[in-house]
Amino acid sequence: MRVRLSVATATAAAAALAAVTGCAEKADDKAADGGAIKVTAKDDSCEVSKKEFPAGHVQLDIENKGGKVTEVYILFPDDRIVTERENIGPGTKARLTAEVKSGSYEIACKPGMKGDGIRQKVTATGGKAVKRSPEMDAAVAGYRQYVQAQADETLPKAKVFADAVKAGDIEAAKKAYADSRIGWERTEPVAESFGDIDPKVDLREDGVEKGQKWTGWHRLEKSLWQDKKLGPADTALADTLIKDLTVWQKKVGTAEITPTSMANGAKELLDEVATGKVTGEEERYSHTDLVDFKANVEGAQTSFELLKPVASKNDPKLVADLDKQFAALNTLLDKYRKDKTTYVFASYDTVGKDQRKELSDGVNALAEPLSKLAAAVVK
User: Fold this and answer.
1) CA-to-CA distance for 293 and 306, rounded, in angstroms?
2) Side-chain half-sphere exposure of 5, counting CA atoms within 13 A
3) Percent of the chain scored above 90 by pLDDT?
4) pTM of the model
5) How far apart are the first and last CA of the chain?
6) In Å, how far from its chain's centre is CA 235?
7) Percent of the chain at pLDDT above 70?
8) DSSP symbol at 225
9) Strand order of the sheet with strand 56-64?
10) Residue 29, number of CB atoms within 10 A of its CB
11) How far is CA 111 from the centre of its chain?
């Protein structure tokens, strides 16, 4: 969801996320950890308490003292993402646990959640890699297979969508649209880690920056549902979408995946739901938000299930709570489809205010314990 929210929308999103993160933040305040790196994000600065720290499991204690919603990233020198925490509202705190090898990195704060951010160069010292249990290795291997399979399955579905667009068949393109996005939505945090692919294929109109060309699914979504016509420009956009998704498919196998990035990615997917799907912002023309919603939940649940053997040893109560909340949210989503074997969900514009509140409450109930999964994995 990087660089896809307007400032006004981001502010509203942060308010929606307050219930998601509040309990975790209160617990974090009580946890005195001298080894943590304190990150103070302001509208015009990004202060870090340490610019050199041991490689291994690193904890960021983040506080947003600015007036804008912000994001905080740990970045590789080539701008690939090690880990991130989005939608940190003014006056709120967040805790982020990551695994880093020795080397040079940057910690970036993005006030307003746009642009390259305000950056600080940092160094992880020491040559020893984090020791992983066989269960951790199995989780990473399983997730790597999962994200590759999702990319492999997405490309042919996207080609069906693109071919319909190029043929000028509006109804066929509409029918193929949501299905073509499922694999992407399940694994979006991995796609975002490459930096430039996500804004090319999944950017919304209000996230387009000055000088940037709007491409991808949502540009075509607007042509299909709002403009209700397809032309040569859409044909070119369809070809570009397939080109960019092919790059993603080829790159996904090289992604940096760790147990903590899996756990943090699961939390990011729930944030995606809270800030885009529940609000109806994501699929504003097609109203296929519930398909994306389900895919985000499935992706988060896959990470959790793969990490469960590790987390169960370290925090069985957390695992039990997550099992309960995933089941409850999936049951709630099932109310909006007649056949559980398909991804045919109710159009989101038919979902009333009270129903959206119920969905939001379900997301919040899951996201709060899910925010603790990364810490449970590395105990």
Assistant:
1) 20
2) 30
3) 75
4) 0.84
5) 29
6) 29
7) 90
8) I
9) 46-48, 37-41, 56-64, 93-100
10) 11
11) 18
